[in-house]
Amino acid sequence: MTTNNIVPQRALGSQGLVCSAQGLGCMGMTAFYGDFDRAAQEEESLRTISAALAAGINMLDTAWMYQSFGAGGGGNFTNEELIGKAIKQHGRDKFVICTKFGI
What we know:
28% of the residues lie in helices and 22% in strands. It is α/β, with parallel strands linked by helices and 103 residues long. It has one domain. β3, α1 (38-54) and β4 (59-61) form a beta-alpha-beta unit. α1 packs across α2. The model has no long low-confidence stretch (mean pLDDT 86). Pfam families: Aldo_ket_red. This is NADP-dependent oxidoreductase domain-containing protein.
């Protein structure tokens, strides 16, 4: 996939990391918005991540708590699993991952 870099890129820190000025919030791809069909949701979410990457968005925002608990498609469906599939599809070097956790 060719990146058009529609979204501006910014240097992040002093180690050469380049991050898009806008990120993609991934919470709604696996959590909090009711029952869903896991297979269909996963397919649509991976297409969304691919489209964001094509637009120059390489920063994905996730968190450990972004998951469904057995809704719709049976079993837990975590955001980290979904992002892992996108990484496998496009390559780890294409993404900057932003995460957070509760104490």
